[in-house]
Amino acid sequence: MKQTISTSERRIQAIDKAIEGLFEANISGKITDERFTKMTANYKKEQRELLELVADGKKKLLDAEQIKVDLRLLMKAPRDYTDIRQLTPEIVNALIRRIEVHSKDKETKKVKVDIYFTAVGLFTLPTGKEMQAALEEIRQNPQQFKISA
Predict the structure, then answer these.
(1) What are phi and psi of 148, to 5 degrees?
(2) Which of 35, 45, 70, 91 could be stapled to 119 by a disulfide with Cβ–Cβ 3.0 to 4.6 Å?
(3) Does residue 23 contact residue 37 with C-beta atoms inside 8 Å?
(4) What are phi and psi of 42, to 5 degrees?
(5) For residues 76 and 70, what is the distance between their CA atoms, to the nearest angstrom?
(6) pTM > 0.70
(7) Domain ranges of the chain
C-alpha cells in the first residue's frame, strides 16, 4: 500500500509537470488549443483518480496502524489485568474503547448499552449452544487453538 501511494504521488507530480509543459507548448504555438484541451482533460482525470487513490490508501494505512495499536493494547491488557478484583477507570480505559447508552425502550422499559472493546469492536455474547460448539471444536483440534505469548 505504501509503495502504491508513493508511486501515485510521483505520478501526480509528473502530471503537474506534463500539464505545465503542455501549457508552454500551447502558448508557444507548438500545439493547438483543441489538442491542449483534450490532453489536459485526460491528465486531469488521471490526476483526480490518483488523488482519490492516495487519499483512500492513506486512510487505510491509518486505520491499519490504529488496529495494530489497539491489538497491542488488547494483548497487553489481559497480561496486566489477569486478577481483577475491582473495576477501576484505568482498567476500563485499557479494555474498552467506548460505551454507548441508548434511550429507554418504552415497551420494555430497558436501556440498551453497547460496549465497544479495544481492537474487538462491538461484541455480542455467544449463546450457550455456540459456547458448547466452540469448546467441542477446541477439544477436537487443540493444536489449531494453541496460543503462544
Answers:
(1) -115, 140
(2) 70
(3) no
(4) -65, -45
(5) 10
(6) no
(7) 2-80, 89-145
Contact 44/23 with Cβ under 8 angstroms? no
Separation of alpha carbons 126 and 134, rounded Å: 10
Alpha-carbon distance 95 to 137, whole Å?
A: 27
Q: Which three cell numbers stand for residue 120?
A: 474487538
- Cross-sheet strand order for the sheet of 96-104: 96-104, 111-117, 121-122
Amino acid at 126: P
| Cell (9 digits) for 119 | 481492537
Q: How many CB atoms lie within 10 A of CB 57?
A: 18
Instruction: Give the model confidence (pLDDT) of 58-74 as tens digits.
Output: 998 888 887 777 667 66
How far is residue 139's CA from residue 25's CA, in Å, rounded to a whole number? 74
